[in-house]
Recover the amino acids of this structure.
């Protein structure tokens, strides 16, 4: 266990001499307080896996849902033939449907586990809801559902059932927006600078994904409204985080893959605005180039992620989704400019995102024992000792 900076301490609490707001050895979530050496035997036998499960595991569904949307885009018959369609059509016809079903089953399983956690371990869920890092991943399941909705081969955007599902997946995002953004501007002038971290980009991405889904089903006003909320808070978050970007100790070493969300947010903003404006205009290109710059800034500093790569953890899944979103916006850019360099860039990013996702699936299959932490991240703060 390693001590992190004061920026990691839970809201409203002071760091004790022994430390608070620490990272587990696997870095998968932050502690709200110092956990006991061993969980109570009664807890271990009663809750089992639920004791070690949290919203951070929805990184897996984000990655798979993003891949499903990427291959839906690559196989779209309206895309530029020389750049995209041969890549997708070289695969078996059922490959995309299988990928979408795999993403759906994974998301359903994770949602079922988290629903059980809400029933059996509600104090831990409540602690996650109040924690400035854990709160951000409560957006992840709704982002995953919205991505799968946009990638589905079974529904058209104009179908009434599509509209109904959009409302079902978007309303929780709005509720969480009120909770998170309301705190940002009502809890004092230093509150955001204390709690902001790279995982906070999840709140922005949720609004942008919701806006893109609304635009695809033809609801222009709703899409613009969600985009405005996401863009306004992205500007505030970007400035807040960029001012201390070089202070890489703002997150524990094992959580540093989350830094990839820096370029996921502008990439998703570019995709959302493209769907709203019905063209990949100058604004979309500016956001795309910003994403490329941030991506280059991160990959040029491999030592930033060196300690995170020492042992496999669920935090590694944070690499996949941002790369997939960057490949998606590169595909839109290649279709717009239709230049060889843009096609090469799109293909390189698409291949990179697929390779990273496949590698993570292999690691997950063979290193399942490393996925779950040995104790609950919020155990000591939420459950009474006996």
């Amino acid at each position: 266990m390693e001590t992190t900076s004061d920026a990691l301490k839970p809201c409203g609490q002071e760091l004790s001499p022994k430390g608070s707001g620490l990272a587990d050895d696997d870095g998968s979530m932050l502690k709200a307080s110092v956990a006991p050496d061993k969980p109570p035997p009664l807890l271990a036998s009663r809750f089992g896996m639920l004791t070690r499960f949290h919203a951070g595991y929805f990184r897996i569904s984000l990655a798979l849902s993003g891949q499903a949307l990427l291959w839906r885009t690559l196989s779209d018959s309206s895309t530029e033939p020389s750049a995209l369609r041969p890549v997708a059509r070289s695969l078996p016809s059922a490959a995309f449907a299988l990928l979408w079903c795999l993403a759906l089953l994974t998301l359903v399983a994770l949602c079922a586990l988290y629903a059980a956690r809400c029933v059996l371990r509600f104090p831990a869920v409540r602690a996650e809801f109040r924690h400035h890092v854990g709160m951000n991943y409560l957006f992840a399941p709704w982002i995953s559902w919205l991505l799968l909705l946009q990638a589905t081969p079974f529904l058209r955007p104009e179908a009434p059932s599509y509209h109904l599902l959009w409302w079902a997946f978007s309303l929780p995002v709005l509720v969480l927006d009120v909770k998170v953004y309301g705190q940002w501007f009502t809890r004092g002038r230093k509150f955001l600078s204390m709690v902001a971290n790279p995982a906070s980009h999840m709140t922005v991405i949720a609004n942008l994904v919701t806006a893109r889904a609304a635009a695809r089903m033809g609801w222009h006003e709703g899409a613009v409204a969600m985009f405005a909320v996401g863009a306004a808070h992205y500007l505030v978050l970007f400035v807040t985080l960029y001012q201390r970007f070089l202070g890489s100790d703002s997150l524990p070493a094992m959580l540093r893959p989350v830094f990839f969300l820096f370029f996921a947010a502008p990439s998703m903003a570019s995709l959302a605005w493209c769907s709203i404006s019905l063209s990949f205009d100058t604004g979309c290109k500016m956001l795309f180039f910003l994403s490329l710059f941030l991506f280059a800034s991160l990959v040029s500093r491999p030592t930033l992620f060196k300690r995170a790569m020492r042992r496999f953890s669920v935090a590694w899944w944070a690499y996949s989704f941002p790369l997939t979103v960057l490949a998606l916006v590169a595909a839109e850019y290649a279709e717009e400019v239709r230049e060889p360099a843009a096609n090469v860039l799109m293909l390189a990013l698409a291949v990179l995102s697929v390779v990273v996702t496949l590698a993570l699936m292999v690691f997950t299959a063979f290193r399942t024992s490393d996925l779950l932490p040995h104790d609950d991240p919020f155990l000591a703060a939420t459950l009474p000792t006996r």
